[in-house]
Amino acid sequence: MQDNKLPRRTVLKGALAGLAAIPVVAAWTRADAAAALPNLDPADEQAKSFGYVLDTSKVDAKANPTHKPEQKCSNCLQFKGAAADASGPCVLFPGKSVEANGWCKVWAKKA
Ligand code: SF4
Fold it and tell me: Structure pTM?
């Protein structure tokens, strides 16, 4: 009778290699998802209604007196991209990608 058991060390190495690959695959998937989304156009009617801008340093201070320079999409609660992403999905604008350095009036600090 043949023994078909794999050595325990081989099984553990395979399992660890599989676990190590999960964050890489997750990052690829997230990057692909963001890359597949079209950029939100600041001229879009909904974007305009929320005062969305591509660059938080360009926010009209008179029209948005509560805006602070450190507020940007990448540290907003609604931003679903990774911290290092240049752009990513936003809950407020489904199907679109917002700039990580962008801003709108709905900005709320990410916890
Ligand atoms: S809700 Fe937040 S992430 Fe979305 S556009 Fe506004 S500031 Fe950016």
Answer: 0.72
The CATH number of the domain covering residues in 8-99: 4.10.490.10
E strands, the chain, are 87-89, 97-99
Estimate to the nearest angstrom the gap between the alpha carbon of 67 and the chain centroid: 21
Q: What's the pLDDT tens digit per position in 65-108?
A: 999 999 999 999 999 999 899 999 999 999 999 999 999 999 99
**Spatial distance between the Cα atoms of 9 and 18, rounded to a whole number of angstroms:** 14
CA pair distance 94, 92, nearest whole angstrom: 6
> How is the chain split into domains, by residue range?
8-99
Distance 13 CA to ligand 1 centre (A): 42
Report whether residue 103 contacts ligand 1, using a CB cutoff of 6 Å. Answer: yes
